[in-house]
Amino acid sequence: MSKHKYFGTDGIRGKVGDVPITPDFFLKLGWAAGKVLARHGSRKIIIGKDTRISGYMLESALEAGLSAAGLSVAFTGPMPTPAIAYLTRIFRAEAGIVISASHNLFYDNGIKFFSIDGTKLSDKVEAAIEEELAKPLSCVDSSELGTGSWIVDAAGRYIEFCKRTFPGNLSLYGLKIVVDCANGATYHIAPSVLCELGATVVTLGCNPDGININQECGATYLGLLQSRVLAEKADLGIAYDGDGDRVIMVDHFGQRVDGDQILYIITRERLRRGKLSGGVVGTLMSNVGLELALKKLGVPFVRAHVGDRYVIEKMKEKRWSMGAENSGHIIILDKSTTGDGIVAGLQVLSAMVDNHVTLHDLCGGMRLFPQTLINVHLTRHHDPLETASVKQASANVEQKLRGRGRVLLRKSGTEPLIRVMVEGEDPNEVSRLAYYIADALKDES
User: Is the dihedral of CA 393, 397, 400, 403 positive or negative?
Assistant: First the structure.
């Protein structure tokens, strides 16, 4: 797990205007990252962002810092996080940078880095950047300063990449799909991909104004999508988060299809086609129903720490190509180097089309166990998970479940939260026990 001062499980994130999400810090961060990342000779960094208003300010500060370190910047404008990973690879850039706070609201922002290979930076590289941050900022000679440019048709390049991950002998003709882009980075990408593959597309959350990203829309708020799928009599709905690296779906009955179910559908389809290599990686949050369903298929399953970087680390360790978080980060390493909401959704759609079945039917082989997830905000500096009252409350719940469920308490890697998860057979009992632990946490937080 990350032990850095600034870098968390998914880059750096926080409230705009508070350290470290300030122009002066991003200036210094650009310089420090430039000093560390200038290794391969291209001396070019690709910068993308989501649609939040603070992205323009932070982008300018980053550019100045990178230029001072002697690196040039190629801008893409608003683009999904996985698109930057892809463009970094094909342009052989030193690194890719995404300015985004993912599923958070507009008043937060953050930064993610991708290596020349399109993968998240290692702990070692992040530590090296933090080490440079502690040094005084300097500037290369004027003749060595970096410049700025734009990547022509970055969106078009990524759209074509996404379409190539869908089987060439299939199309989406006849499917009506409602797409919610969370007023985020997929707003000009996902609808085009689906339309060009033949679907009839109804759009939601495709009018970003810098403020409305993730606001009662997208993968973290399905109410609008669910009602629209029913009203339109659509075949399904697809929701992305603000930076497009996660996806949640809705079937034609308006029922949620989460990351665990999406992972199961793609895995089973690959098994059917004889294209599954090895097993599947989930996380500590993955539903036990996924584990049991994969066991029935004879597919190995292991759990990693929460965070897509840890899922990918475990996948590489096992030499497996499939992994996911139930929040909708679906990683398919033979398609993309990172979680990609659009690409993952296309794999589910290809299973629907090739088998002539509904999304609801594809979920049929897996039974989700009831889970209750509660976020408790941290207001003090001490760790409430180490207090006697919280430990006792957790032990009481585990005793109550007596092997019929699970309890998981963990700190968020991106927000000042403790996440409480209780899983079991009875939804009412699960909810009651989760709130019991959450109340104990609130007393100590």
Answer: negative
Which amino acid, residue 190?
Answer: A
Judge whether 332 and 388 are in contact, CB under 8 Å.
Answer: no
User: pLDDT per residue over 352-392, tens digit each?
Assistant: 999 999 999 999 999 999 999 999 988 776 788 888 999 99
The residue-averaged pLDDT of 213-227 equals 97
Encode pLDDT of 383-426 as tens digits: 888 889 999 999 999 998 887 889 999 888 777 889 999 999 89
The single residue of 102, 286, 321, 327 carrying the catalytic annotation is 102
End-to-end CA distance of the chain: 22
Residue 123 has pLDDT above 90, yes or no: no
Total residue length of the chain: 445
What span, in angstroms and rounded, lies between the C-alpha atoms of 51 and 250? 24
pLDDT in tens, 250-282: 999 999 999 999 999 999 999 999 999 899 999
Structure tokens at 247: 């996806």
**Among candidates 381, 371, 356, 385, which has minimal Cα distance to 431?**
371
Q: Classify burial at 141, counting beta carbons within 10 Å of its beta carbon; exposed 0-12, middle 13-18, buried 19 or more.
A: exposed
How far is 248 from 440, CA to CA, in rounded Å? Answer: 31
Helix (H) or strand (E) holding 223: helix 223-232
Active site residue 102: yes
- Residue 421: helix, strand or coil by DSSP? strand
Positive or negative torsion for Cα 24, 25, 26, 29: positive
DSSP string, 366-402: --PPPEEEEEEE--SSS-GGGSHHHHHHHHHHHHHHT
Question: What is the spatial distance between Cα 98 and Cα 87, in angstroms, rounded to a whole number?
Answer: 12
CA angle 174/243/191 to nearest 5° reads 20
299-314: b (≥16 Cβ within 10 Å) or e:
bebbebbbbbbbbbbb
